[in-house]
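FIELD: query
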Amino acid sequence: MADAATSTTLPPSGGAFSLLISPAQLHALLDSGRPCMVFDCSFDLQQPQAGQQQYADAHIPGAVYAHLETALSAAPDDQSPSGGRHPLPSRERFAAWLSAVGLRNDMQAVVYDRQGANFCGRLWWMLKWAGHDAVAVLDGGLPHWAAAGGALVAGEAAPRPASHFVLHDPLRQLVDVQQVQQRLGDAQQTIVDARAPERFRGEVEPLDPVAGHIPGALNRPFGSNLGLDGRFKPAALLRAEFEALLAGRDPASVVHQCGSGVSAIPNLLAMELAGFAPTALFAGSWSQWCSDASRPYAQGAA
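FIELD: result
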């Protein structure tokens, strides 16, 4: 895999960035005139409006703000395909939002945040789920963009003309709570939990009514995928770490989860950066799993 941190090469005409993009590559893309749209997904779970204020204070010129709870989660009247604290909107509702903000099917999408790809990964995955492969995460997020001399502006971006975003077949797999429960203990399902170790072990639980984890799950906190510079680790290192975690289990059996289906995405993306085929997401995650007292749970280390 090319080093996205240093390369300024753009894909051939008609090609796309589909995993990561570096600040230098984003500069070149924006200068090239190719159809492109940038999204700021900054968010704070403890202060839900803080991310929008961060965006208003400073963002990449032209970037559109994507609010986790109003744009990237289901509305009360939406038929969500998942449960949990941040249920996914229906694909149709999501396509309507993309159309309203002006994303076209021929555009390259670039997503970023200020929180270690914790929140922008949600939009990256959702666009894949909508059948849009041309979406990439800005490696290192806004901090790395700024450190590389990237321009920043304040306020709101000028509205773009509405588009007609057309859904295509999903490019990533979503599994629901019934599928996870039916396959519990099956060698064809390996659950990887992205929450902090103390939450996984059930020592603390600040958000959900039950502390612990799905029986048999493995723990890999989502921040493990980043180096000290805030960028994703090299592909070879990520692959070695996931192979050690899986300990012989089939990578194709992996189902990612976290607390509400958001911070699981960096693990999913990291596996693809490491060269593994795309793996599945249980978007309802622990918050949906523990909402039914009849479902089993475990505490302690994996």
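FIELD: remark
Residues 1-6 have pLDDT under 50 and may be disordered.
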